[in-house]
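Q: What does the assembled structure look like for these inputs?
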Amino acid sequence: MTMALEGACRPMARCVQRPGLKRINLQIRTFTTSNASRQEVTDITSTSSPPLPANPFRSPESSAAVVHKPQSERRLIAQHGIYPIGSRRRRAAIASTPSIPFHQLPYQCFQEARKVLQQDRVEKVAEIAEQRRRMEKVQTSLAQSQSTGDEPSVKQLERRLRDMRQHLEELKILADINDPLVRKKFEDGLGDMNKPIYRHLADKKWRSYKRKVLVQRITQMNVVPDILPHIDPTIAVSLSFGRKDIPHGGLVLSTLSEDAPSLNIQPFDRGERLVTIAVINPDVPNVAKDGFGYRCHFLASNISISPTQTRVDLASLDPESQVILPWLPAFAQKGLDYQRMGVFVLQQGSISEEETSTSTTEEQSSPANLPVQEILSAARYSKRENFVLRSFVDKYSLHPVGVDLFRTQWDEGTAGVMRRAGIPGWDVEFKRKRIYPLPYRRLKEERYR
Amino acid sequence: MQPPSMALLRAFSPLWKAPIRPSIFSGLLQTHQPQQHTADFSSTAPRCKRKKGKRTDMRITNIRYHLFHPMTPRPLRWSRNRHLRHWTIHRAWQLYQHNLRHKRDEELQKQYFSMYNACEALRNIDNYGLTAEDRTAMGEPPSEGKETGRLYRIAMLKRGMWNGPPIEYARIQTDTPPRNGWNHQWTR
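A:
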């Protein structure tokens, strides 16, 4: 215990021993050690400017708590008649506290707690190594039974290996979840999404509120049974037109949605994957049928997504190998209600982990890349009107993993948007069919039954 | 710790109105009564701006009463580092408690299984302490009748278990007396 306290006090003691130490990084956030550039900038300004007192903004009253040099104490007493508060050691400690890194702050209980957590982390890291060793063993025996062709034991070992991998992932998260610096970094938005702990925290945060809102919107507005039968979002999708972020299900001005939006697609599990993005309008009026049909406003495939590579600008995709149907502005003709625009992110290939054992991946080696040119040449999915996403998903064995929604309405800009895009019908107004009331006076022989 | 008396608080509380004696306060009571807000059946908020007159919402009164009650602890207002430090300590404490619980569970599990194994061994042996395998190995004839597992059956009857002192007070029977005799100073 005493050792830890001494260790914690050491920087403070250093400050006490070296009274000439200049405290230049006062304005710097105390424990973001990664941000070196700001520190450099402050250093340069402090050397170039004329020497200032320790803190020019400090009033003599408040500096009574922090002066710790005999000279400055004397100056304070002579000039302002204020006596310093507390012992010199205490004042030095208070003055130097901002320069102590967070994990060395000299609080006894805090240091004890850190010791407990560090001990636990060491244990967890050892457990991870142990688990890896065990997995290697299982893998070797799996390879053996594969070579001998023992089918039941292969299956059992594969299941075992999958469970072990899951446990390993849990351990990786448990090793870091109690670290206050990890927590702080995540709260600041500086977390590295390549690390499992930050992915886990981001996933928890998303599921705690945003995903609930999203699921509520897509079920209340019936996007889910209307366009696709069911979806369980595991990837966070957010939509923005230019600089404007659109909340899930928000009404978007037609002038704003004239240009293609950009998507932020944030997966929470490791590895790259290819996705297909489809924007479907399920509220296209069909006058002949007296009903509604679908229209595809955008369709692109083979878009590479990873936890760190999340931004997808729908306007800047490759027209040769990715875009099937380019962006068509969202519009709703005059007299119609608002129209829903469902944005779907569909994962290509198998949804299971990419690290599953070699035999299963060979078996399931469905082509992850969609044949864009083939789709374009065939008429089925290259026309916008009556594009049925259900059949597209079934045909190319896609897995819906992310969804977003926005709505569009007739507004003053819609006519211009439609004219510029060359869409007919900008001068058409939809009206309800007048239902004439029954004649007031009924004939004698007509009776209610 | 004894909580402070609520009698004084109740005297000034807007909720628990002391019955006003009708002697000298009768005039006051008359002017006071029409202002009292009666709870209506609609759950929508009253339009205070449109409907003139002072209206008090009982729900808000209740919330305020309990929120600013002197016995309600003040909210924790901490700086970020202070909060992080608190969080660290909290997590360490939770972890410690978890480990403790885990250890106890393991201990209990071990005890349970050792008991189980003991019972299983008792069930398999006969009066000579031999199992069926032992007998065949020694070339003895198999034990007859109820000889096998007799001790187990007796143990499972638990006869006289509740007659003596409680089982918590029991001492494990040993061949020799304990090294330091009876502890006369022991109290619960």
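Chain B has six helices and no strands.
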